[in-house]
Amino acid sequence: MSLAVNAMNGHNMAGHHDNRSIFGDKRCLVLEILYVLEGINGDLVDTRRKALESSDCLMNGSIGVPEINLINRLLVMANHYIGVNHFIQKYSSDSNPYNRRLAQSVDKLLIDYRNELIEVEIDIHRNPNYSVIKFNRFLKFGQTFDFLDQIVSQFNEKVDSFASTLDILNESSLSGFTQIEKCAKILYESSDSLYSDIWSWIMFGFLSNKSENHFFIRDDNQKTTLDMSRVPAFISPMDAIKVHQIGESVRLAQSRGLEFVFNDKENDLFERFNDMKNRVSSDKKSFSQFIESVRSIVSEQNWKYVVNEEGLKDRLQSLKMFYLMSNDGFWSSFVSITSELVLNGHNRFKKEDSNYSICLNYKIPDSLQDIISDDSINK
Known about the structure:
With 379 residues, the chain is mainly α. It folds into 3 domains: 3-96 and 107-141, no CATH class; 191-312, no CATH class; 326-378, no CATH class. It has helices at 3-13, 19-24, 26-37, 54-57, 65-91, 97-109, 111-126, 142-157, 162-172, 178-187, 192-204, 237-255, 266-277, 284-309, 312-324, 328-344, 356-361, 366-373; strands at 216-218, 224-226. Helix 1 (3-13) crosses helix 3 (26-37) and helix 5 crosses helix 8. The chain is rod-shaped. The chain starts with a helix and ends in a 6-residue tail after the last helix. Residues 32-309 form the Gamma tubulin complex component protein N-terminal domain.
């Protein structure tokens, strides 16, 4: 328990004091200020009151207007601290890695503030006449707490808010305000969870069941679909679709008992991915280029599998030979059946016919149309 808490407990045990008696005892006032900065409201300095009444405080002349204004500014900051601290306690051990990582990053930002509190406690203990005005040393944390309050409030207001939170952090890292950029850089470490899920998906077709904030939804049949509302702004809708398709291709290969390996390109991809992940400000271009390079590799692997393993080339060759080796009677029958559809098919149907649209969308390759149109066919 802190010195401030011990001291204030002793003060409260001595009996109830009205506001003027507390202000008359400057040391009690100093302890109450420290008390509230640690997240515990006192008798007079209380975040629930939002502000001190100047008339009450000035009645005995123990403190002046500058001190009152300072205390009121500290009350705003203390109120933010209470909300942020509640967020940390709620999510720092959460089963969802996204929430847990964000809470841990927020907690990391409060280290300097808490160290400052310890130093002030020691100073108050050593100096019985510690001045209220010396608490202005905490004002340097005001911008940090305003930013953290924005992040926490936005997170609490939305159910699926991780993507929105990342968007705020991404924008704030380029704000031009040194303190805000510093905060955003630390908090952006929480994006590791999202990047880890993306890497696991595109490389191994795997999604963690504990990660509820990624932009994939898996139904009871293990079918995976996209939820665009959860996609961060630095990932375009088209790239999100590519990410989804890449993972599905990997899963399909695995379901056939194939080891879907990126061969010697995996290490290079991993280095590029880490480089992109470690940038505080993510941009669509770098992410898009990376995903496109992965998609190209996967497409090439799929093509090789279809051509070599499934024998697509041999199947097409057999189909070609089937028609080339057919006798004249078979070929003539084929031409007579298909030529009318190809050459005159659209004229046989009225637009109101339910089958018209089907015929309209039925396409014969241009090469076959040329063969059928050739006068030599009828010879």
